[in-house]
Amino acid sequence: MKDTSNRRLNPRTKAVHAGTRRSQYGEVSEAMFLTQGFVYDTAEAAEARFLESTREEFIYARYGNPTVAMFEDRIATLEGTEDAFACASGMAAVNGALISMLKAGDHVVAARALFGSCLYILDEVLPRYGVEVTLVDGRDLGAWRAAIRPDTKAVFFESLSNPTLEVIDIRGVCDLAHAVGATVIVDNVFATPTYSRALELGVDVIVYSTTKHIDGQGRCLGGVICGTTDFVRKVAEPYLKHTGGSMSPFNAWVMLKGLETLDLRVRAQAETCERLARELEGHPKLARVIHPHLASHPQQALARAQMDKGGTVLSLDLAGGKVAAFRFLNALEIVVISNNLGDAKSIATHPATTTHQRLPDGQKATLGLTPGLVRLSVGLEDPDDLIADVLAALDHA
To answer: Is 3 part of a structural domain of the chain?
Structure first.
């Protein structure tokens, strides 16, 4: 792309062009540099690069790669952050963002409604190394206020919780955290880069599983940490490059291709998701339909203030419990049963027996993970076909 630094480009344009590095051949599609190492003209050149390499000079693929650098630059530009570090998976990004900045004796406050693997890091890994973790009801700003202390080092939450779609008051939590100098880290997967306002609302570090909407077609694992250059390069990068959590060049190339159509895909999915939620609300087989933009959602006003759309995921709580949920899942013909989300294919998940299976029953109940809860990630199929498939499956529940 020609120099457009003096122009204010819209996100869809940035997602197609930002960060492109063309080789001497002038390729249209970004080049895939499948190499683990790089050659130096002389021993002196090798010494100089190890002493002080730049973003245009590479040493080893675990430290950086031209294809990976293109993806990092593009997602940072799209998100509005100074920099980004691409990781091997979404959980590598969550783990890297937290562990790289914490040490024994530090205090973290986090929302209790989180993806199972995130809870594992907070419940099991961090305390093992002497980090104190306090979990709170993320919906309750008073609970955050009571838990955040003068020595709190970081706060962590999902902007929309998985799978019950609780909404966090991002600006409110950021104000409380920043008052004591704590770093705010948000897992922004459900909001997606298309509807993200995390940076504007005060978040310091934004984490994505790029496996989800950014790839969006079920192909590759990936994650990314977005933030200031100081955090990304001086805090996160040293930990990740030495512990092996960096993204592969091939996966970075897939993510670059995914970014080109991200906006179009997510907008179509979000439209269908909200339409499906409205069609299903009040269905006799459902105890509740959870979607952030439905009037029945207790945090609808906050959700609308923070996101133009409610996202690509809704949750259904079947009145008949696990038996009804399984009958419903097994009767679906278009929607597939899996544990991913943000895919071109619509995916149904039973969190209580899969992604959140390890949680004790009491904790599941506290989080609203009922036996009848099904998370539905809406894909790119025709909306009428999806609605018909879900309604037909409900007849079997």
So the answer is: no
Tell me how far apart the alpha carbons of residues 279 and 39 are, in angstroms, rounded to a whole number.
59
> Which residues of the chain register pLDDT less than 50?
6
> Which residues, 6+ apart, have CB-to-CB distance to 99 below 8 Å?
125, 126, 239
Question: CA–CA separation, 199 vs 193, rounded Å?
Answer: 11
Task: Please measure the distance between the N-terminal and C-terminal CA atoms of the chain and give it in whole angstroms.
Answer: 53
Among 181, 174, 7, 178, residue whose Cα is nearest residue 77: 7
pLDDT tens digit string along 79-113? 999 999 999 999 999 999 999 999 999 999 999 99
pTM for the complete prediction? 0.94
Q: Under a CB-based contact definition with an 8 Å cutoff, are residues 298 and 163 in contact?
A: no
Which residue, 227, 242, 258, sits at the end of a domain?
Answer: 258
Residue given tokens 């929302």 in the structure block: 111
Written as one string, the DSSP assignment of 259-308 is: HHHHHHHHHHHHHHHHHHHHHHTT-TTEEEEE-TTSTTSTTHHHHHHH-S
Q: Which of 258, 291, 307 represents a domain boundary (last residue)?
A: 258
**Do 234 and 313 lie in a common domain?**
no
Residues contacting residue 65 through CB under 8 Å, at least 6 positions apart: 33, 35, 58, 249, 252
Six-digit token pair at 192?
């997606």
pLDDT of residue 91: 97
The secondary element (H helix, E strand) that includes residue 87 is strand 83-87
- Kindly state the tokens that stand for 252: 């970075």
Residue type for position 82: E
Residue 222: how many other CB atoms lie within 10 Å: 27
pLDDT at residue 3, as a whole number: 56
pLDDT of 2 reads 58
What is the model's pLDDT at position 357? Answer: 87
- 178-197 residues labelled b (16+ CB within 10 A) or e (exposed): eeeebbbbbbbbbbbbbbbb
pLDDT digits (tens, 9 = 90+) for 229-248: 999 999 999 999 999 999 99
CA-CA-CA-CA dihedral for 211, 216, 220, 225, to nearest 10: -30
Residue 52's pLDDT is 82
